[in-house]
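Customer ticket, subject: "Can you confirm the structure for XRE family transcriptional regulator?"

Message body: Hello, I'm evaluating your service for our small team and ran a test protein. I'd like someone to confirm that this is what the system normally returns, since I don't have a reference to compare against.
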Amino acid sequence: MRTANDRLRAARERTESPVNPGECLSRQELAELVNAHVWRQHGTTVEIDANYVGKLERGVIRWPGPLYREALRAVLGAPTDAALGFGNRRRAVVKLSTVDRKQFLRTAALGVGSLALAPVTALLEGNEPTPVPARIGRTEIEQVHTAARVFAGWDHTYGGGLTREAVLAQLRFSAGLLETAYPARLHGPLHSAVGYLAHTCGFMAFDGYAHDDARRVFGFALACAEEADDWHLRAKILSSMARQAIWLGKPDEGLTLTEHALVRADRLTPTERAMLHTAHARALAKMGRVRDTLVAVGTADDHFAHAAPAEDPPWMAYYDTAQHHGDTGHALFDLAVGGRSADKATARLASAVAGHTDAFARSRTMSRIKLATLTMATDDPREAAAIGSSALDAAGALRSRRAADDLRELARYGLRHRTTPEVGLLRHRITAAVLAS
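Agent reply: Thanks for trying us out. I re-ran your input and got the following:
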């Protein structure tokens, strides 16, 4: 009598869908992941489908081929075939009952040194925190600025996934400086430096989808900017808070934040005003306000035409021509997929991809993904697949939840072209990459 493979079904249902977050992996998605894994690891094309997975779960097939078993273990995170309910009834089983396994492991470990048996956490016990100086000056303030610049550079290149804990620890230490003795003339510069670091930490949290942490840290950063009476830092923080709100589906909140940042815009540089009007445009586009979006993009262009980088604060160094074209291209993207002409959005996103340097790999990758998605939605699916494959190659080095979500969006737009071979392969690769991340 046939027995259902409940272990395999349970493993699939424990695994989140890479395309529909919050839902479990479907049989068809599992099949596509297996196909993609076999192709990626062995260069072999296999085409199992939901029907085949159903046979595995119903117990019709109890011992799939070795490539399938390997792929299923990798996709579902299973250590053995048995963990997925697979067993070869024709194989004789020999049990070793006389081996002292723990003694064997202890003996084997001697070959790599006793460190192999020591808990890693024990190595970190007893470390004392770095003491906060009793009195600080310009040197300490510059060190906080340097930390903020270094972490921001890492974030632009690799995303916020790997170093967020490190920058948070640095922020805790730097915030302690606010409670030490310092000359009155350093009150503003110190609060600005700590606020700059806090903004970097907040944006990394946003990129890693630690949204509550991001809101709290952005709030602290804004308080520092207000205390320092630093209008430039205030504008940057409010812009990032607006971007987070827009990303979370709250464009009205994002619109309010950008308008709050534009109060006394005469105190800001042209680059900063361009940045804020671009965020304004992105909020308006999400709200479907076409004419207002186009006006905001035009206003941002006008301000950016007068940009003087030498006048900008250090945190604005990222906002060059490529960034401006990418951000305005994102706003126009929403209009294009809503039925407007895609030409302007396509041109701006392509310019961003061409203009971003390796130091801004995340922005370049995200603009490339958007360009692929727009091309998939409005033009040639084969060209879109080529652009998307290039973006996917670059995305492997990133640890950015936002980039992963953009890839999911690209896969959804590719669904109606899934019978096109290039698009089908791209969707397989996206599914595998997003699940692995």
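A couple of notes from the result: Residues 132-229 form one domain. Confidence is low (pLDDT under 50) at residues 92-126. Feel free to reply with more questions.
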